[in-house]
Amino acid sequence: xxxxxxxxxxxxxxxxxxxFLSETRKLAEAFGRTHPGIRVEVRGIDHVRLPQEVARAAxxxxxxxxxxxxxxSTQLAADLLTADGAPLFxxxxxAIAGRDEILGVPVRLDDLVTAARDYYTLDDDGLFALPxxxxxxxLYANTTLxxxxxxxxxxxxxxxxxxxxxxxxxxDDGPAxxxxxxxxxxxxQQAVAQQGGLLALPGNGRAGRATGVALDSPALLAxxxxxxxxxxxxxxxxxxxxxxxxxTYPAWELNYRAFAGQQxxxxxxxxxxxxxxxQAGREGGFRVxxxxxxxxxxxxxxxxxxxxxxxxxxxxxxPDTRDAALAFLLSFLTPQNAAERHRxxxxxxxxxxxxxxxxxxGWFARNAHHQVALDQLAQGDRSPASRxxxxxxxxxxxxxxxxxxxxxxxxxxDPAVRFARATAxxxxxxxxYNAHCLGLVPGPRGPHRFRVx
Length: 453
Hints:
The protein has about 450 residues and is α/β, with parallel strands linked by helices. Helices cover about 45% and strands about 15% of the residues. The strands form 4 sheets. Strands 1, 2, 3, 4, 7 and 15 form a 6-stranded mixed β-sheet that branches. The protein has a 5-stranded mixed β-sheet with strand order 12-9-13-8-14. α13 crosses α14 and α18 (about 395-410) packs antiparallel against α19 (about 415-435). The protein is globular and about 75 Å long.
């Protein structure tokens, strides 16, 4: 390459994950030193605005080469279009085209943790996006409280959680509630996947575009019924809808504070919080055990789904820019970079080589709580259920679930009736989203809702 190649990289600017933006800038500087003639310009944009900013830039013919996307925005990213109506992004695996290295950077797609690779493998296009930030949902337990209640092992099932909460409730000076978690769509995704159920139809959006939703399936209603009974019995501490609280203390933070303050014995939260939860125990004088998310004992366990973010490659780049972008993306997967990102962020080490490097260093021996997320994800059966749903306007669909659950918990709404209504509401949203993306309604073709969450 004789002329300088400039890569525009647009990333989510998260208030809760600031390090990825700053560390990517450092990675870009290091990449520029080892690849003279390539300059990587990293721009952070508020995560709520980023998808719409990308769509606007694409419509004006100035789209960036690499874009970060939240996992529930996967269908949205796949549906974004260039100014001439072509797909904005292309499959990373297809762009690599079977090469072993690009500009001296090894291709390590086969080294990706299976659950992360499976989520972003779409149709016949192979790995569409690269997932540097991957997480899952875990259970955090105050074993000091549990032992006082006579519970010697952290439960692995819903039934075990109920029994443990009953034991905690019997303590004379115990907490008012046994467990908490946010009323958030991610929890529904996890519980349905664990039971082998689907949220999107057909095939969880894995066999083509999702055209239907199933928010009143037996798997989802089984989770709702267990949740409702925990709440009715006084064991579940409800902090409100996912947007509950003020900007300083949203629902996720309120759940953490309840656990840190020993107001509950258990909390379900992201694996990214493992260090913080363990530290809360140290500071509060109680022991914390990190365990897999409990599942129903009534059906075979199918697996848990991922959360996190991915990086997408723009289509139509000239060969030099395309290869520069691919080489930069692949640099996220070197064992050293992936391992260091895990240490600093709490997201899982996204490649097996990074995991091996951490094991050799004794990292997991010293920090066993970081091993749990990897082990949980490795138990998935790789079915469409455990791979997770991909569908349009996912955030609004999630809101239909959480609003329905709120009514079940606070107004004694009948779960089957209320979630049937939620399914109808979500179906209307999905139909409208698909109609715009397929050009079935007047106006520009492509997504018209860009919500993130």
